[in-house]
Amino acid sequence: MWNSFVELSVIHTYYRDLRDYYSHYMGTRAADFEATKQMVLLFDLGKYDLEDSYTSVALVKQGKKITESGKLPMTKPEYDFVNDNKEEYKKYGGSILYFFEGLGTGDVDYSAYQSLDNLGKVTPLTSDEFFYSAAMYGSSIVERALKNAERKRLQQQGYKKTDDLWKISMAKIDLQLREMFPLAYGRDLGELSKLDGYNTVSNQEFDIEIRMMEEMYKDKAFNDSPVFPFLEEYLIARETTIASVMTSKKIPLRQDAIDFITRNDSEDAQEMRDLLYYKGIEIAKKNYMFAIMWDEVFYEEISYYGIGTS
After folding, report:
1. Collapsing DSSP states into helix, strand and coil, what is residue 82?
2. pTM for the predicted model, two decimal places
3. Which of 38, 133, 163, 258 has the highest Cβ tally under 10 A?
4. CA 285: distance to chain centroid?
């Protein structure tokens, strides 16, 4: 079973390789320090509070089970909440659990969990999914590090992102990344099909969960939940961002604007994703319930090309 922590395994493997490399020249103790320093530089952790970068909320769900049917009740209190809100559950599915104050508390009902597992609603990561996730995560953090460094260099020399040299520099990084991470950036289907991780299984998409959140917000469902005003704050910021893209890029359809934000690899789209990321983190610090909602739902929408620290 590939229930490994994908992100942590990539980080650990890279750190171990760095440490081995430096140990040949510096010795073991100095190699530990140098490898750690390089990791800090790579993740740009110098500008973050480590408590914000590595929290239990950020790591609690990574690499465990993948659900194909939305959020599922796992504890007795969660089952009670679902049973007490049967009509809402029928309409919005497991998304209603994000409005439950007791989410994650109480004893786990293992028998019920096993029943869901056997029904195929919850599946472990396959080896292909693991390789694919590792490639995507590894490529995203390297891309962010390389492009951030290049942006700083170009800005110091007085260049802007509209200048040809800026565009050429970023294009060169893209070519380098395609060579380093063919699984994440490759376009040759014949070559990609030979790689571990190419044949991945698509589980429930994040946008379904987001649509449920939007519906509940519009219907004022669970508006007495402590998390509701924080959800409202993020959805308003998200809608403002979508509207600005529709106007600035002359995109008439809202869904096309969302696709631009979430799947376009341009710097303009990256700026929009960064904007939403930092807004989400800002709100998550205010309320632990939204922190869970952010990590499991909204973060997934903007993390395809690597955002933030998770």
Report:
1. helix
2. 0.55
3. 133
4. 17
What are the φ and ψ backbone dihedral angles of 193, each rounded to 5 degrees? Answer: -65, -15
Tell me the C-alpha distance between 29 and 49, whole Å.
25
Is residue 264 situated within a structural domain? yes
Query: Do residues 209 and 215 make contact, with C-beta atoms less than 8 angstroms apart?
Result: no
Pairing assessment for the beta strands 65-67 and 122-124 based on DSSP bridges: antiparallel
244 within domain boundaries: yes
Nearest Cα neighbor of 242 from 212, 217, 215, 276 is 276
Q: Look up residue 96 and give its two tokens.
A: 């209603």
In contact, 166 and 172? CB cutoff 8 Å: no
Dump pLDDT digits (tens) for 146-194. Answer: 888 888 899 999 998 888 888 888 888 888 887 777 776 654 445 445 5
Tokens for 119, please give them: 């029904």
> Which residue in the block uniquely carries the two structure tokens 């993390």?
303
Q: How many CB atoms lie within 10 A of CB 172?
A: 12
pLDDT digits 0-9 by tens, 96-134? 999 999 887 777 665 555 545 544 445 555 666 666 667
Residues composing the chain = 310
Structure tokens, 284: 């998550």
CA distances (Å), origin 19, targets 11, 25, 38, 46: 12, 10, 10, 20
Give the number of domains in the chain.
Answer: 1
Domain limits for position 238? 56-125+202-302
In a domain, 31, yes or no: no
C-alpha 100 chain-centroid distance? 23
